[in-house]
Design brief:
heterodimer; A: 672 residues; alpha+beta; nine-stranded mixed β-sheet; six-stranded mixed β-sheet; 32% strand; elongated; B: 291 residues; alpha/beta; two-stranded antiparallel ribbon; 8 helices; 12 strands
Amino acid sequence: MSLNFLNPHLFWLSALVLVPILLHLFARTKPPVYRFSSVEFLKRIVKKTTRLKKPQDLLLLILRTLAVAALIAAFLQPLLFTQEKLSGLFQKKNLVLVVDASASMAYVEGAQTRFAKACAEAGELLTGLSAGDRANIVWLKAEPEAVFPDELASNLGYLRDRLRRAEVTYERGSIEKAFSLANELLAGTEGKREVCVVSDFQKSSWEEFEPTLPDDTDLIHVKIGRENAGNLAVTRLSTRPDRPIVGEELVVDAEVANFSDTDAETTIFSEAGENRRSRNLSVPAGQTATAIFRHNLTKAGPVRAKASLAEDGFPGDDQRSAAVQVRPYLRLAVVEGDDAQTAKLWTRAAQSLGWAVPERLDAVDLAEGKADEFDVVLLSGLGSGDGATFPESTKVILLPSIGDFGRTPGSAPPGMAESATDEPLSVRKEKAQDGLFTLSATGNDAGVLDLFRGDEAAALDGPAGTDRLLFDKPVGGGPLLVYGDEAPAVVRSRTNRFLWMIPLDETTGNFAGRAGFVPFFAELLLADRSAGGGGAGDIDYEPGETVFWQAGETVVDRDDLEVFSANGEPIEFSEADGGRFSPGSVASPQVLEWRSNGKPLGLSVVNFPASESNLETLSLVEAENFASVVVSGGGEVRNLRDGLKLWPWLLGGAVVFLLLETGVVLWSAATP
Amino acid sequence: MPGHRYLRPEDIRKLQTFEFAPRAVVEGYLSGRHRSRSRGSSIEFHEYREYSAGDDPKMIDWRVFARTDRHYLRTFEQETNLECHVFLDSSASMGFDGGSPVSKIEYGSFFAAALSYLVIRNGDRVSLQLFDDAIREFFPPGSTSGHLNQILQALERNEPGNETSLSAALEKAQPLLKRRGILVVVSDFFDDPAAIFRALNPYLHRGFRIHLFHLLTPGELDLEQRGLTTFLDMETGARLVAHPSGLRQRYKEAIDEHTARLRQLSTRSGVDYSLHRTDAHFFRLFDRLVG
């Protein structure tokens, strides 16, 4: 805090503050003489009143001195600078203004957004710079950038013009990068160095941040906005299953967060294709609530799933989208190994479903990775030496070959089976000693056996055949079907990985002929389809991030491909590595549609960054923990720049002191 | 009569309608003179009156009884010269005017001059004593115009003197007053009331009728509004620094207490006491002389 005077040449006036003191002392020693007839009566009473008079005299002296001092100080026109920074009226300085342009700054407080207020305050700071001072502006967003890319400049008018024309982004702010850029800009400059951050200091972004600035660089924070601003936002949107097929029910989970101190009642809307749903939702204060919608998808192709709220003071996060690629059928890859019969029956069963299309692959195809393009890979009689790796999202159903199972990495689909010890597993075929092996469903089915509860269990339970496959050691995972001696028949090793230990051969067994076989097989194909990821268009991007899109299983010619923004405008894009395409970064939340020859192929979803929805900001005390200066917005920046004019206060103070003095005099006169 | 400072022609004109009597100065010309029941060589026959119970048998005229066989009293009338003794305080404190057009000593001088004029005009005798802590001037009783002229000149010469000691002055003046009469004391009475009345006791025993005229200026009755002030005692020269504004009420209470004490002692002793503001006309002092 410092004090400057606009009229320092009037400092000699400060000597006048001694006048009342001298007058008081002089008056006390030589008050005017009054010839009086007799002071005998006065003498008798003056002793009693002297004790009271002295404090009154002292009080009067203090008040009169203060009044004169305030009056003199008013003539000096003092300016109070509450902070040392920006107060060096006669110093050249280098100032980097870091203006927060992140999404939370779009919040409307009063008549303007936080960002507009921040630009106004930044303009005030620039106005306070002297000729010869140099400055620059760094926009705090996903990829911070400076107005003058490489250095500071003295063209402050241009900076002010940029501030007037600037617009807030929908991006998450990268504080570290912004400070790094500010440091780079200030490096090598001569004179005083200052970094002034004009931001709402959103708690979720700034709470854990610790600035790293050189010791000779001062950091100033100009805080914009209230500490708490209530907001309702759709913070998460997910769909199940991951890649639905036509006719399948799509479940949309929409999470709504209430970033306020009061409970909220709201209506949430959901769209998927041509379906629209809505429901009322109660969201407790400071918590989240999830609304679940179910939509029936009737057409194949890319579908936008969307959840939205009624628009509030911060509309950017009131909706959220997800891209869903609706597939016409499930693609199955049947790889025939040692067990041709099982492969054959699997193929027939799949063909009977109507929504699954099996294709035969051989070992060469498997080695080339062609199986990655399929939803389900059925491996019939594969074992050591035939192993391959598959994406986590690809479901693998393995009937192991007889012999060493091969736990050596790469020899079998990873995670298919684990022994209780470190010793390798081996598989053997076993024949029933008398009659047939019987099967029964377990409870540990992960939803696969939902159709076989109660009376329907009989469709699965019962004789299966004379042959079965057995591991020589216990394996992990959860058995879905077990033999009569509890040996596993169908095991879910982990997500999307199943072991099938039932040889399907019409000559040795009749499991494939059982009424429950096809439904069980179908459920097995559909199980775990919500897990995993991948596929075209299902990656959630944020504004400012580079958007990529991959055609997936569709072969696309670059020349036929187009991408359109939400308002139907075509966007330029380029081909990226890995067969991906990219329109670059997208500034605002929207859904981009990729088309080939007019046919929709996929969607790229750019959603509002969920971390920006919580508008709670750091308190001044919290902000002071890592900044040397914190100033609230609303005129205080002008005071920081120009100093607070104290003379009106001093004049008022002088009047108050004089009034008090008058009061004391009157009170003294009225006191007996 | 040539013009005098304290006896102005306009005052004389007004005084024409006044008459000074032993008990009264009354407005208008009233019959009756100063009556005396004392007998002496200058006794003159007044009238006979029938004896009534209670009369002194010595007063019965036995010759008339012998002639008429009735008891008649022979009454006499003696015209005596009234003596009025004026004591005018001339101490330093009497020079204080305190917001009044005239000082207390001037005010008292006006009254003393008028009173002396009235007394002498009636053919009575008046004496004047100017005192402070001692008798500064004494004019023995006289009834001539020359005597009045001397008194008036003395008043004009008179200046405020030393410290007040009314009691001392009264004690010293007692031997100077040969005949009893009316004692008029004009003072600000800045003295111990008990000492004053101790000094007055001999006069009371000798049959003096005593009038005490207490003169105070408005500024003495109610302290002026002033800032911090050095009060300089006009009699003692003592200095006192004080805020009058803060002392006014207590000072007034002290003055009231002092006058109340004087009034109380006066009532107890049969002395006429009156307090007068010097901003009122001095003729009002004559009201107290109405018997």
